Each structure stands twice: as C-alpha cells, then as structure tokens.
Amino acid sequence: MNVLRPPLRDRLAAEYALGTLHGAARRRFERLLPAHPSLRRTVAEWERRLNRLVVASPPAPPPPEVWPALQRRLFPAEPRRAWWNGLAFWRGLAVAGVLAAVVAVAPRLAPPAGADMSFAAIRGKQREVLWTVALADDGRLHVNNLRAMAMPPDQRCFLWLKTAGGPPVMLGALPDDGGSRTLPMPAGMAKPNQGELWVTMQPMAPQPQPPAQPLYQTRWQAL
Amino acid sequence: MAAHDPLADLLARCALSDRRAFETLYREASPTLYGLLLRLTRDRELAADLLQEGFARIWQRAGDYRPQFGRPITWMGSIVRHLSIDRLRRGEHRRRVELGEDDWAAVADEGPGPEERLRAEQGDTALARCLEILDPEPRRAVLLAFFDGLTHDAIARCLDRPLGTVKAWVRRGLLRLKTCLEEAP
C-alpha cells in the first residue's frame, strides 16, 4: 500500500502529529492506523519528537470550575448500587441465560442432569462491567466484551485462571472490539470454574508470560 | 531527561484507580496543558472544555502510558492536542476564518519564541538548538502549526505566502528537525 512507503509514511505521520494533515486525509490516515503497526510506530516517534514542545508554551492556571466538573463526570456520586442492580450485569446475565438455554435444548451439548453453569463479570475502574464470562457445560468459555475498548498498539487483554498455589493458566485472548468470542478449554483442564479469573494487558505474543499481578480480577458465580 | 519523572508514578497510580494520584496529576500538569490549549484555541471556554475532556481521557488511558512515548507531559500533551485539532477542524469553531488582518498579524507576531522556555526552564537545549537552526520562515510555519493549530491554508494567509511554499516549508522544517534531533537527542 502506498502509504507504507517509508518517505511518504514518515511525511504523513509527521503532518498528522503536527496537526497539518486534516480533513479527509486525516480521517483516512486514522483509519489506516489500527491495521499498520509500523505506521503507528512512526506516528509515536513523531509525537515524542514534536510534543517535547508542549512545555514550551507558557502555562496558565485553568479555571477553577474544571476540576469539580471533571470529578462529577468521572466519579458521579451514584448511590452505591449493588452489583446485581446494574444494567450491564443484567445484560451479561441475559447473554448467559441465552447460552444456558442453548445448552439446555442442544441434547449433544448438554448432559441430561447436573448441567450447571458458572458466570463471572469483570469490572473496570469505575465498577463498570467490561466483560462477562460464561462457562458452558462443555467447558468452553463464552466471553463477551460489553464495550469496545481503546487498546494501546500491540497490546491485548488476556484471561487467566489463577488457582491457589499454582501459576496463572492462560485461557485465551479477550475480545476488545465490543464483540464476543468462544475460547476452547485449555488442554488438561477439566473445568476451569475454580479459582479466580485474572485479566492482564500484555504485548501480543504466542506464549504470553504468566503475570504476577492482574489488571482486573474476579470470581466465578454459580448460576 | 533520563531522570525519573514523578508524573510517571502518578500515571501508574491512576491506572490503578488512585483518585488522589489523579488529583495531584491534575494539579501538576493542568497549567501546562491549559496554557497549550489556550494558545491553540484562543478561546477560554473551549480550552477549559478540552482540558476536561483531555483529563478524562488521561484517567481512562493512564495504563497505556509507556516511557518510549516520551515524558508523561509529552504524552498527555499529545492527547489534548489531538482533541483540540479534531475540534478545531470539525468546523464548530469558526473564529479562525473570521480573524481579520490585524488578528493574523497578532498571531504571526507572538513575541519571543519558545526556545527560551525550552532552554531555561525545561533543560531541553537539544530541541531549542534544533529549532534555531531552521530558517526563520519555515520555523515560524512549523510553530504556527504546533502552537496555534493552523492548517497549511491558514499559515499561508497568516504569513501572506503561497500555499505551495508554506507546504514545502513545513515539510522541510519537520525533516530538518528530525535529522537534527537524531544527531543530538
């Protein structure tokens, strides 16, 4: 593709970082970014270079009303809602419910008795649900990303199972595009419904390193 | 520049939802970012609005910061600059095209250049020196784009030069800046 030829790529990245790339060209350029890591890298280099200028404009005290407005916006003083009272939880539950129904009516998938299901909600910083995880009876995990997430280039979120005494075992990469995905049961694991679920953000790699700490963590709930 | 930047710790704590750290980060970084936004928009209300929007993003994306993106203030500056460029270009902010001749002259003649501040207060002598080796007009064009958020078109009107000339100045100015910074980062 034309834009990836180095001299042009460098020029467009520079003008994008500077702000002189505008209109349709700017939008087209932004659409290319997600799929082209080398282009993102070139933009990052230009931003690092040019934005050293940020500190060269004289600082000015911001109007005092900005901080309270920012706090109201980010941390609304909501009456503390119970976790089962949030819309996102019910949305997740509805997904799990549909899955349970599918499992129940599909005779090959569902054993006649004792079909149970585990469910987990992974919450973000503002307690909002980011993913729901439903463990179907066949051991497959159905993960649902409730909102598309802006991810740093080359990073993915991974789901891990952490049991007491052992290192975390990777269950798979989580969707971050607002969609859902089915993850196969890890080899040698009967049913991963014990322990905690950990989420990490890590560079994309065939074998991501088991984390020492999770970014988010949650526990299974039986349905 | 290699010294550890306390803003990096604050960002790391924000990534773990530490609101105290966020408050400190706001206190430390908002004057720089607001100053930048005031200059970019020349509109207090819009600058305040973009500052709020920018810090909301900084809170949400604090975990994305990596040292290879530059200093934390550089990374935060890039967030608010992109926000304001998008807003300025969306046409909601029409004041730019309404600037009269005198206003353009005022934009073009913005007093002492930024090199002084870079050198004296930020210790970034490399960038100051690399700006100084640019010819005056290409240098002016790059700075108008960076600090005033002007398009090629607007720079051409502001400096009263043909559009093609301005485009070439910006392109060459950026290239020389890059080469110079690569020689002495």
Gap between N and C termini of chain A: 50 Å
Number of helices of chain B: 11
Tell me the count of domains of chain B.
Answer: 2
Question: What is the rounded distance between the termini of chain B?
Answer: 10 Å
Regarding quaternary structure, what we see is heterodimer
- CATH topology value of the largest domain in chain B: Rna Polymerase Sigma Factor, Chain: A
The CATH C-level class name of the largest domain in chain B:
Mainly Alpha
Question: Whole-number radius of gyration of chain B?
Answer: 17 Å
**How large a portion of the residues of chain B is in β-strands, by DSSP E?**
under 5%
Show unreliable segments of chain B: 95-99
Extended strand count of chain A: 9
Number of contiguous helices of chain A: 5
Give average pLDDT of chain B, whole number. 84
Please characterize this protein's 3D structure:
The complex is a heterodimer of chains A (223) and B (185). Chain A is α+β, with helices and mostly antiparallel strands and 223 residues long. Chain A has two domains: 2-56, no CATH class; 83-222, no CATH class. Chain A is built from five helices and nine strands. In chain A, strands 6-3-2-1-9 form a five-stranded antiparallel beta sheet, with helices on one face. A four-stranded antiparallel beta sheet of chain A has the order 5-4-7-8, with no helix packed on it. Chain A starts with 5 loop residues before the first helix and ends with a strand. The model of chain A is unreliable at 79-83 and 106-115 (pLDDT under 50). Chain B folds into two domains: 1-93, Orthogonal Bundle (Rna Polymerase Sigma Factor, Chain: A); 96-185, Orthogonal Bundle (Arc Repressor Mutant, subunit A), CATH 1.10.10. Helix content of chain B is 74%, strand content 0%. Chain B has eleven helices and no strands. Chain B has helices spanning 6-15, 19-41, 44-61, 72-89, 95-98, 101-108, 115-120, 125-132, 136-148, 152-159, 163-183. In chain B, helix 2 (19-41) crosses helix 4. Chain B is globular and about 50 Å long.
